[in-house]
TrEMBL record:
GO terms for molecular function: catalytic activity; cobalamin binding; iron-sulfur cluster binding; metal ion binding. It comes from Aphanothece hegewaldii CCALA 016. This is B12-binding domain-containing radical SAM protein. It comes from the Bacteria. Transmembrane segments: none annotated. The lineage of its organism: Bacteria, Bacillati, Cyanobacteriota, Cyanophyceae, Oscillatoriophycideae. One of its GO terms (cellular component) is cytosol. The keyword Acyltransferase does not apply. Its cofactor is [4Fe-4S] cluster.
Length: 534
């Protein structure tokens, strides 16, 4: 194995001018299904086949020399064929730990036809040992290692005799990132669009690998970059909503304060073509000026890693910032600005007890949060949690388990708590009750957006009618909870609240169907679970 590292400082960057023509195939592997991928909703949505465009590999594709031919295949939409592999000179893959089997499978297929393979992204950067058979490893973020990798691919057509590692020493500033190669995908095939403003998070939660991978001092794009990317997204399709994939959208509040006026102006100029969503710490509720601007920019959803309502657990996992104000109060404040809160919930903490599941369910009832990603705790490499549990000999490698952690409570009891939690939280009547609260106390607090050409385009109308018709048939006629559905749907139809009806029914359909499969053992109790399903 060869490791190539470059100096910490480089002269002013000049685009690499390749001497040879290359064909590069970028592949994003299929990922495991979860609460948050909304895969059960896709058949009701016409063209939609995947959740979100893969930001990382889209940026890599845009960074490659313009002289080269570049194709991108998202295997969540369609699988790469042997013809695709044969077309390419080199294959570039990126992904997370959960995609590890698929990443290594792509490598095998590429090697069968003699192609050079490259793997980059968060998984290989944290654990290069997971990918012993790849030809080139790109470790770290976009930067000098990327330039070295490009030069290597320019100068070599044959596979190396041993693995070569390119380690980033000098990261490319986010302000110099290219616009992701949206032109290589069809955005109308995605449930939601994606965009990135910052990287890194100032907090250090025990189970999270973000600080290790991307640092605790958020790095930023400029507002001008974000506006250019939004324009590029609309040029490639309009998914109707765009998610800021930042690890913590409010990690640098001054920078966000500078960005939001530009987002507001862009929405007004373009007729509010999309809703925005983001991931942020719960203490966003303590920033009313930001919240008012987010409301004006038409942010409608915020994912908050609440994790648990139990204070002892939050202290133990270094998530004290969730206790800076009462959690229920924070949720209500976010709702008052039109933000539907989506919450992460985790079971399996050392502080959990048999009462924990009831405490979580009571929290769900009081908070009226409709959607919660309820998972078992899983230890990721390069986290404080992994390091602590490894010292305690509590890391377990067993594909028959839903988690790699030896819990302090009996494993089957923890899994049973998870099943009780999801089956109760997503009982149709309870779920629709929470959505009804949000329709009255959250959605009503959003700005009234105009019926602009961007919102009432023939494409949007056809998409909306397609979803509505499919919901009427699939849920209104054939579901076991059709009575609950119509109790919501009839009043919404009479009031002309079609968008609210579609949102509630579509999201609920996915959550209810996913829960049914979870209780049958067909879905995983953790997003990172490697358990083989029947």
């Amino acid at each position: 194995m060869l490791t190539t590292t470059l100096a910490e400082t480089l002269p002013d960057k000049v685009p690499y001018l390749p001497r040879n023509h290359r064909r590069i195939l970028c592949i994003f592997p299929k990922y495991s299904r979860s609460f948050g991928t909304f895969h059960y909703a896709y058949p009701l949505m016409g063209k939609v086949k995947a959740f979100m465009p893969p930001q990382g590999i889209l940026i890599v594709a845009a960074y490659l020399p313009k002289e080269w031919e570049v194709r991108l295949i998202d295997e969540n939409i369609t699988s790469a064929t042997q013809k695709d592999y044969l077309w390419a000179d080199a294959i570039i893959v990126s992904g997370m730990h959960i995609q590890r089997p698929q990443i290594n499978r792509i490598n095998q297929l590429a090697h069968q036809v003699g192609k050079i393979t490259v793997v980059g992204g968060p998984s290989v950067s944290a654990c290069p040992e997971y990918y012993p058979d790849f030809d080139l490893l790109h470790l770290g973020e976009l930067g000098d290692a990327t330039d070295a990798m490009i030069q290597y691919l320019d100068e070599h057509q044959n596979r190396p005799t041993q693995q070569i590692r390119f380690q980033t020493q000098k990261r490319l500033p986010l302000s110099e990132f290219p616009i992701p190669a949206y032109h290589l995908i069809n955005l109308n095939q995605y449930f939601i669009g994606s965009i990135q403003f910052s990287s890194g998070c100032p907090y250090n939660c025990e189970f999270c690998d973000i600080p290790t991978l991307y640092g605790r001092n958020p790095r930023l794009k400029t507002p001008q970059q974000i506006i250019a990317e939004l324009d590029a997204i609309l040029a490639s399709g309009n998914p109707g909503a765009i998610y800021f994939v930042d690890d913590n959208f409010v990690g640098n509040r001054q920078a966000l304060n500078d960005l939001l006026p530009d987002l507001i102006a862009w929405q007004k100029k373009n007729g509010y073509p999309v809703q925005f969503a983001c991931e942020a710490t719960l203490n966003l509720a303590q920033s009313p000026k930001l919240l008012e601007m987010m409301r004006e920019a038409y942010f409608c959803t915020v994912f908050c890693g609440i994790e648990t309502p139990e204070p002892d657990a939050l202290q133990a996992i270094s998530k004290q910032h969730n206790l800076s104000m009462p959690i229920l109060k924070a949720v209500k404040i976010l709702n008052s600005y039109g933000l539907e809160v989506v919450s992460g919930i985790i079971l399996g903490f050392d502080t959990d007890s048999p009462k924990t599941v009831d405490n979580i369910l009571e929290f769900i009832r009081l908070s009226q949060i409709p959607m919660l990603t309820i998972n078992l705790l899983y230890a990721l490499p390069k986290t404080a949690l992994w390091d602590r549990l490894e010292k305690e000999n509590r890391i377990i490698s067993d594909e028959n388990r839903e988690s790699n952690i030896k819990f302090l409570m009996p494993y089957e009891e923890v899994v049973g708590m998870w099943k009780k939690c999801i089956s109760t939280a997503y009982r149709p009547e309870f779920l629709y009750e929470r959505f009804a609260y949000n329709a009255l106390h959250t959605f009503s607090n959003r700005i009234q957006v105009p019926n602009s050409p961007a919102r009432t385009s023939p494409q949007n109308i056809i998409k909306g009618l397609t979803i509505l018709l499919n919901l009427m048939i699939r849920v209104g006629l054939f579901s076991h909870y059709r009575q609950t559905f119509w109790q919501m749907a009839w009043p919404a139809l009479k009031k002309g609240e079609i968008q609210t009806l579609i949102h509630i029914a579509l999201v609920s359909y996915h959550l209810i169907q996913f829960t049914i499969d979870c209780t049958k053992g067909k879905e995983s109790a953790s997003f990172y679970s490697q358990k083989v399903k029947s």
